[in-house]
Protein backbone atom coordinates (compact mmCIF):
# COMPACT_ATOMS: atom_id res chain seq x y z
CA UNK A 1 0.00 0.00 0.00
CA UNK A 2 1.39 3.38 -0.99
CA UNK A 3 1.03 6.27 1.42
CA UNK A 4 2.12 9.88 1.55
CA UNK A 5 2.20 12.71 4.06
CA UNK A 6 2.15 16.37 3.02
CA UNK A 7 2.36 19.43 5.23
CA UNK A 8 2.39 23.13 4.39
CA UNK A 9 2.94 25.79 7.02
CA UNK A 10 1.83 29.30 5.97
CA UNK A 11 1.80 32.74 7.59
CA UNK A 12 -1.09 35.22 7.18
CA UNK A 13 0.11 38.83 7.21
CA UNK A 14 -2.13 41.92 7.37
CA UNK A 15 -1.96 45.52 8.55
CA UNK A 16 -2.65 46.24 12.21
CA UNK A 17 -4.28 49.48 13.30
CA UNK A 18 -2.11 51.46 15.67
CA UNK A 19 1.20 50.10 14.31
CA UNK A 20 2.52 52.49 11.67
CA UNK A 21 5.08 50.05 10.18
CA UNK A 22 2.28 47.70 9.02
CA UNK A 23 0.09 50.40 7.44
CA UNK A 24 1.29 49.68 3.88
CA UNK A 25 0.96 45.86 4.10
CA UNK A 26 -1.79 44.24 2.06
CA UNK A 27 -3.32 41.00 3.43
CA UNK A 28 -1.27 38.08 2.06
CA UNK A 29 -0.56 34.40 2.86
CA UNK A 30 3.15 33.52 2.75
CA UNK A 31 4.14 29.83 2.54
CA UNK A 32 6.95 29.20 5.04
CA UNK A 33 7.53 25.44 4.99
CA UNK A 34 6.60 22.59 2.68
CA UNK A 35 7.09 18.97 3.72
CA UNK A 36 6.28 15.82 1.72
CA UNK A 37 7.09 12.21 2.49
CA UNK A 38 6.12 9.12 0.48
CA UNK A 39 6.47 5.47 1.22
CA UNK A 40 5.00 2.01 0.99
CA UNK A 41 3.65 -0.23 3.72
CA UNK A 42 3.60 -3.99 3.57
CA UNK A 43 3.33 -6.98 5.84
CA UNK A 44 2.77 -6.61 9.57
CA UNK A 45 2.67 -2.79 9.55
CA UNK A 46 -0.07 -2.76 6.92
CA UNK A 47 -2.00 -5.41 8.86
CA UNK A 48 -1.74 -3.37 12.10
CA UNK A 49 -2.88 -0.17 10.37
CA UNK A 50 -5.82 -2.00 8.77
CA UNK A 51 -6.96 -3.45 12.10
CA UNK A 52 -6.57 -0.21 14.07
CA UNK A 53 -7.87 2.28 11.48
CA UNK A 54 -10.41 0.31 9.43
CA UNK A 55 -11.62 -2.86 11.11
CA UNK A 56 -11.85 -1.73 14.75
CA UNK A 57 -13.92 1.43 14.01
CA UNK A 58 -16.35 -0.66 11.92
CA UNK A 59 -16.75 -3.24 14.68
CA UNK A 60 -17.33 -0.53 17.30
CA UNK A 61 -19.84 1.21 15.03
CA UNK A 62 -21.95 -1.95 14.80
CA UNK A 63 -21.36 -2.89 18.45
CA UNK A 64 -23.11 0.27 19.66
CA UNK A 65 -26.30 -0.76 17.86
CA UNK A 66 -26.04 -4.34 19.14
CA UNK A 67 -25.65 -3.11 22.72
CA UNK A 68 -28.54 -0.66 22.29
CA UNK A 69 -30.77 -3.48 21.00
CA UNK A 70 -29.67 -5.75 23.84
CA UNK A 71 -30.51 -3.03 26.37
CA UNK A 72 -33.98 -2.57 24.83
CA UNK A 73 -34.62 -6.32 24.97
CA UNK A 74 -33.54 -6.51 28.62
CA UNK A 75 -35.72 -3.51 29.47
CA UNK A 76 -38.70 -5.12 27.72
CA UNK A 77 -38.11 -8.41 29.57
CA UNK A 78 -37.95 -6.63 32.94
CA UNK A 79 -41.16 -4.70 32.22
CA UNK A 80 -42.98 -7.90 31.22
CA UNK A 81 -41.64 -9.69 34.31
CA UNK A 82 -42.78 -6.82 36.55
CA UNK A 83 -46.26 -6.81 35.03
CA UNK A 84 -46.60 -10.58 35.38
CA UNK A 85 -45.39 -10.57 38.99
CA UNK A 86 -47.77 -7.79 40.09
CA UNK A 87 -50.66 -10.22 40.36
CA UNK A 88 -48.64 -12.31 42.84
CA UNK A 89 -47.52 -9.37 44.94
CA UNK A 90 -49.26 -8.74 48.23
CA UNK A 91 -48.16 -7.19 51.50
CA UNK A 92 -49.05 -8.48 54.96
CA UNK A 93 -52.82 -9.03 55.18
CA UNK A 94 -53.98 -7.32 52.00
CA UNK A 95 -56.14 -9.33 49.65
CA UNK A 96 -54.52 -11.72 47.22
CA UNK A 97 -55.62 -14.29 44.66
CA UNK A 98 -53.86 -17.18 46.47
CA UNK A 99 -56.43 -17.79 49.18
CA UNK A 100 -57.00 -17.22 52.86
CA UNK A 101 -54.36 -19.69 54.15
CA UNK A 102 -51.44 -17.64 52.82
CA UNK A 103 -53.14 -14.45 53.95
CA UNK A 104 -53.44 -15.76 57.51
CA UNK A 105 -49.81 -16.85 57.57
CA UNK A 106 -48.66 -13.43 56.41
CA UNK A 107 -50.89 -11.72 58.98
CA UNK A 108 -49.51 -13.88 61.80
CA UNK A 109 -45.96 -13.16 60.70
CA UNK A 110 -46.55 -9.41 60.51
CA UNK A 111 -48.18 -9.40 63.96
CA UNK A 112 -45.21 -11.29 65.40
CA UNK A 113 -42.93 -8.52 64.16
CA UNK A 114 -44.91 -5.90 66.06
CA UNK A 115 -43.93 -6.01 69.73
CA UNK A 116 -46.24 -4.10 72.06
CA UNK A 117 -44.75 -1.16 73.93
CA UNK A 118 -44.55 -1.35 77.74
CA UNK A 119 -47.59 -0.01 79.53
CA UNK A 120 -47.43 3.72 80.11
CA UNK A 121 -44.92 4.41 77.30
CA UNK A 122 -45.74 7.28 74.96
CA UNK A 123 -45.10 6.12 71.40
CA UNK A 124 -45.79 9.39 69.66
CA UNK A 125 -46.77 12.71 71.10
CA UNK A 126 -49.50 14.57 69.25
CA UNK A 127 -49.05 18.29 68.75
CA UNK A 128 -51.30 20.86 67.18
UniProtKB/TrEMBL annotation:
Subcellular location: Cell membrane; Membrane, Caveola
GO cellular component, one term: caveola
Alphabetical keyword list: Cell membrane, Disulfide bond, Glycoprotein, Membrane, Receptor, Transmembrane, Transmembrane helix
Residues spanning the membrane: 62-81
An example Gene Ontology molecular-function term: scavenger receptor activity
A single BP term in Gene Ontology: recognition of apoptotic cell
UniProt topology in membrane: Multi-pass membrane protein
Main location: membrane
Superkingdom of this protein's organism: Eukaryota
Family: Belongs to the CD36 family.
PANTHER family tied to this protein: SCAVENGER RECEPTOR CLASS B MEMBER 1, SCAVENGER RECEPTOR CLASS B TYPE-1 SR-B1
UniProt-recorded name of the protein: Scavenger receptor class B member 1
Origin species: Rhinolophus ferrumequinum
Source species taxonomy: Eukaryota, Metazoa, Chordata, Craniata, Vertebrata
